[in-house]
Design a protein that fits this description.
Layout: E1 8-13, E2 16-23, E3 28-32, H1 46-50, E4 54-58, H2 74-87, E5 93-98, H3 101-111, E6 116-122, H4 144-148, H5 151-159
Parallel strand pairs: 3-4, 3-5, 5-6
Antiparallel strand pairs: 1-2, 2-4
Length: 171
C-alpha cells in the first residue's frame, strides 16, 4: 500500500506562507522535517500516528510548499512555528523533529516552552551540543567512505526524502 499525504493546507504567518498537512484527532503531534527534505518524508508516519492523534506536518520556510522567511536563524523560525500553532488554536504540541528540523525544535523548546508537551529529536547534531573527539565519527576508522563519497551519490541518496526527481540527471 502506498502512503499518501493528506491534502495540503496553507497559512500566512507574517510574510511567510506555510504549507502543512493535517490528519486525525486528539493530542497534537507536530512533525518538523530535516534538510533537504520536506514534510513528504513523514508520509508513512502520519497515518500511523493519526490513528490516535492529530498530526500536523509543516514544510519549513523556503522548503516544499512553504515560501521563504525573512530570517533563517533558528529562533526566528521557531517563532514562526509558535505563531502557526497559535493560529491553529493549539495550546501545546508533542514536537517531533528530524535532522536540521531539530535545530528549530530545540530553539522552540527554549523560547516557547509553554507550547510544548514533549520534544523528540531524531538523528540530529545540535550546534553547541557536540560529541567528544573520542566519539566523533570523523576520528574513527571507516570515516573516509563518508568523506570521499562522490557528490552525485549523496544527491541520489537525498532525493528520495523530498520531492521526486529533484536532482536533474539522477533517478
Amino acid at each position: 500500500m502506498k502512503a499518501q499525504m493528506p491534502e495540503a493546507k496553507f497559512m500566512q504567518i507574517e510574510s511567510t506562507t506555510l504549507c502543512y498537512y493535517e490528519q486525525g484527532q486528539g493530542d497534537v503531534i507536530l512533525l518538523l522535517h530535516g534538510w533537504p527534505q520536506t514534510s513528504y518524508v513523514w508520509r508513512k508516519v502520519i497515518p500511523l500516528l493519526a490513528a490516535h492523534n492529530r498530526v500536523i506536518a509543516v514544510d519549513l520556510p523556503g522548503l516544499g510548499g512553504s515560501s521563504p522567511a525573512l530570517y533563517y536563524d533558528t529562533r526566528s523560525i521557531a517563532g514562526i512555528i509558535s505563531r502557526f500553532i497559535s493560529h491553529l488554536h493549539i495550546d501545546k504540541v508533542h514536537l517531533v523533529s528530524h535532522d536540521v528540523g531539530s535545530w528549530v525544535a530545540v530553539s522552540f523548546a527554549l523560547y516557547h516552552e509553554a507550547q510544548l508537551n514533549t520534544l523528540t529529536v531524531i538523528d540530529a547534531a545540535i550546534p553547541g551540543l557536540c560529541l567528544t573527539t573520542s566519539l566523533n565519527p570523523l576520528t574513527q576508522a571507516g570515516s573516509g567512505s563518508f568523506i570521499s563519497t562522490p557528490w552525485p551519490i549523496y544527491q541520489k541518496h537525498w532525493s528520495w526524502a523530498g520531492r521526486r526527481n529533484i536532482w536533474p540527471g539522477i533517478s
